[in-house]
Amino acid sequence: MAQKEATLSSFLQRFVWMLSGNLGYAISQWLLLSVIAKLGNSQDVGTFSIALGVTAPIYMFTNMQLRYIYSADFSGRKFSDYLSSRIIQTGVAFFAVVIIALLLFSDRRYLAFAIIIIGLSKAFESINDIIYGYYQHKRRNDLVSKSLLVRGWISLFIFFLAFLTTKSLNTSLIVYTSSWAVCLLAEYFSFLSVQKESNERFVFLFKRENIIELLKLALPLGVFSGINSLNTTLPRYYIEASFGLSLVGIFSAISYLKIASGYVVDACSNVLLPEFGQLFKERAMDKFFKLLNHIVLAFLCLSFFIILLVIVMGEKILTLIYTAEYAMYVDFFVLITISILLSYLNRIYNMVLTALKFFNFQLTLGLIELVSLNLFLLIFIHKGFIYSAFALIFAESMRLLVSFWHLRKIKTDLK
Q1: CB-CB contact of 222 with 65 (8 Å)
Q2: How high is the pLDDT of residue 372?
Q3: For residue 138, which of 204, 203, 199 has the smallest C-alpha distance?
Q4: Who contacts 389 (Cβ-Cβ below 8 Å, separation ≥6)?
Q5: How far apart are CA 35 and CA 31, in angstroms?
Q6: What is the pLDDT of residues 220-242, one digit of tens each?
Q7: Residue 41: closest CA among 246, 239, 244
Q8: Which run of H or of E encompasses 265?
């Protein structure tokens, strides 16, 4: 009994740390977009959003969710293999970002430059991310939380000062990215300190066969993550083509809630994934699915209150966070909120599939969502801006139905 209480206490402590860190970081990133909206204009928001839209799918693909694989990896594979793989992946990703910016956006140099700078910041974040995986594996979620809070709020403050002073988005992004480089350097020394505390000696080696084996294992998750990120950003390209960059800014500012609040969902996943991984290793499948059912039920109850809040307070929320211009789109805000909540339910099922090591099936789910989203946008986007939100709801619903069916099948097969 005492051991069970100690385990629960440890779990709750790690969850609180991850929740506080991810929530604090989510707020800082949301405020970053709010700063751009209030000090700049919707075109600045659109530029920033397109830059994120170009870079995010590339890094999501090349990162291959190695952080989460390592956090649930109890096979004895060395962290140096993960770090070596991530360094290679980051170099490839940044090179791809530069090539795409120069080839596809050469006629809009301001936008191309923003894409390259955001791509560089993503490179620093990518290395940070794999170090977080090491902390999680050691159950040091407090270090992840502290790092996220420091990086998020320092970079926000520096960006705010730069944008307030220069009124230039790209200049401010350079300062912002520089702060992330400094944070990564500090993170490296923190990582070495944790290694020393654990009586481990980190040896940085490029073992080709180990890296190739790891990348083969993680490739389906990389493709899935890239497609998943593309699904989030795809409507922006349709909106820009149909309605212009200003509405891209409106769409991105409101739908950025998915990215910002997603860090909170990630906090839960980061704590729960090792627990699911351990239960699967022990073949305690009754406990495995009982935990899943409790999580889903709690999430559905929370979702009901969130939707109700947005319906009642949506206009005031948009005015407070952005400007009165955004408050005109409160109906769109409600629909986006529904799509976001559906996507989070999909993330919960995705976490479980990762713990069960069903990596290839996650790729199938991503393709189902991508095809559904594209078809809906191609058919209906000309009818109006709001149909981009309906498209997201439709695509998330299709993926959710297939995920639910597959997990029920897995549960039956494992009995």
Answers
A1: yes
A2: 92
A3: 199
A4: 332, 335, 336, 339
A5: 6
A6: 778 877 887 777 778 888 887 88
A7: 246
A8: helix 245-281
